[in-house]
Amino acid sequence: MHIPKLISAALFLLPLYLNAEEVLDQNVRDEAKALIAQSFQSDLGYQIIESLTTEVGQRLAGTEAEARARDWGVAKFKQLGFKNVRIEPFQVDHWERHSEHAEITSPFPQKLMITALGGSIATDSAGIVGQVVRFENLQALKDAPMKGLKGKIVFVDEYMTRTQDGSGYGVAVKKRSGAAVEAGKRGAAAALIRSVGTDHHRFPHTGQMTYDQNVVKVPIAALSAPDADQLHRALGRGDVEVKLQIDVQSYGKSQSGNVIAEIPGVTDEIVIIGAHLDSWDLGTGAVDDGAGIGITVGAAKLILDMNKKPRRTIRVVMFGAEEVGLVGAIAYAKKHANELDRHVVGAESDFGAGQIWRFETRFSDSKLHKAEAMHKVLSPLGIALGSNDASGGPDMGPLRMLGMPVVTLKQNGWDYFDLHHTPNDTFDKISADDIAQNVAAYAAFVWMAANMQGDFREP
Length: 459
What we know:
This protein is of the alpha/beta class.
């Protein structure tokens, strides 16, 4: 190899071998540690969650309740002293449920606990009565003949695997839209699925579904896990007939919006954090995602109270309409596309209220020494250094796909899908101590990211 080229390569690789502490100013590191200590002396994050879930409650996208949540967000940001508080509006499809009912009509008459999936069409007022045909999983339904299901009710009885990192969700959630589409292709009258969840309580899980525009639409609902078990057992004794009544309505386009506030920095570079403000309509959205709102706003408020201007601007976003398809995240990415290069790094809290146990990044390989430097500060919180393929959270997805580096402060999600999208997602599930640990991690990370020299992209 030519000697100058060898020297050039060595200089390029040098940052990978530097002591991680050398890339983070001592003052910044000490301030991040002080933020961690301060977070355990404050319950602000916990109080923010209590305020949102009590004063607003459920916040379905496009509804009057979501509009009240935006007003709450603006008032809360201003009360806490943030700057540049504003709403960036966008349009969203407005869908609401009114009532839902299911029962076995024969051979063992009894009620079943269901919930319509978001975006489902309604049955007529008389409902649908049909023989149930069970499929062990979505793939079994996809493999079924195109004939033989006309007028029947498809039941996809697929279980979800419980995992700490939530990885079982990606597999199980495919049936939420897939069951209705595959049932419609085969002439079925309706579809039922075992709830996409890990609990064994009589709380069905809702969630957004979508139709294939080239396939006949059929109504779809989720059974609670015990009711799915009951239907499975009944089917083991012979033919079962179910009556399904779903009263839902789509109202067309409605206004939603992202609520934004900032801690202005010395430069116009941006460190963005956030959570989604909307929720499903069954519970009060405490775990999904009131917790994320409390964590990110609480962390930013700790930084604000330092009364020290960060090098980079810190932007906090309460994203609207996440549950119905990342509508707010897509709107944000579109509106701010021309300033993407100023978005240095982003992270979203949207995996419940459990303690953070892993720090994941998506940085350029040549910038991984910066992840190591950050992790040294976060490590005493019981946080391990994870992989470099972080998602950043759902609402960071559109920005990540456009090239923005992201971080995931991964929470313990062992019981997250016990509560997710159910009536059981309420404030009593929130632990003040766990929220304080989350706030500590976010505050320290954000302060380090906002003041660390250089960025996290490839040169």
